[in-house]
Design brief:
Layout lengths: L2 H19 L4 H4 L10 H20 L15 H21 L7 E6 L2 E6 H25 L11
Antiparallel strand pairs: 1-2
Helix pairs in contact: 1-4, 1-5, 3-4, 3-5
């Protein structure tokens, strides 16, 4: 399975979750759980922020702006941003198909780091799956039965 296929499979799983979340009043998605990023809204924003940072800030070495999670006031806000991120990530992969095994060296917060491109891209996906599991846990704790979050 190539990266694009894996990424698009992840998009399908994400879409199942977003469709389910549309059945819940948005206010419930901002409920402070006391865990990690504290709410489903904040977990969704963190997932997006992380993909944006790794692709834009690290792989593309472009200027990056931290997200303000409270700027996300609806699932439509998340959908619009995910469309932008999906294009950004897939455009990067397509343009750099021949160097995915290469490494990039970046200076971040005063330290020099070296990252293998394909490992960064894989991390983006595993990171989202990890936090999607946390979202499903929060949904279960709130009395909901979340949709299947498996890739297959």
């Amino acid at each position: 399975m190539d990266y694009k296929e894996f990424y698009l499979g992840n998009v399908n799983v994400r879409e199942r979750l977003l469709k389910f979340l549309e059945t819940i009043p948005f206010e419930k998605l901002t409920f402070e759980s006391g865990l990690g990023y504290s709410s489903i809204r904040n977990l969704l924003a963190h997932i997006q922020e992380t993909e944006d940072w790794w692709v834009k800030g690290v792989l593309k070495d472009e200027s990056y702006q931290d997200y303000n999670f409270s700027d996300f006031n609806s699932l439509e806000d998340f959908r619009k941003n995910w469309q932008k991120l999906q294009k950004q990530t897939l455009d990067y992969v397509e343009a750099n198909q021949n160097i995915l095994k290469d490494r990039v060296t970046r200076r971040l917060k005063g330290k020099t780091y070296e990252f293998q491109i394909q490992k960064v891209l894989l991390h983006i996906l595993t990171h989202e799956f990890h936090h999607r599991g946390q979202i499903c846990l929060l949904l279960r704790q709130a009395g909901f039965t979340p949709p299947d979050a498996d890739l297959i």
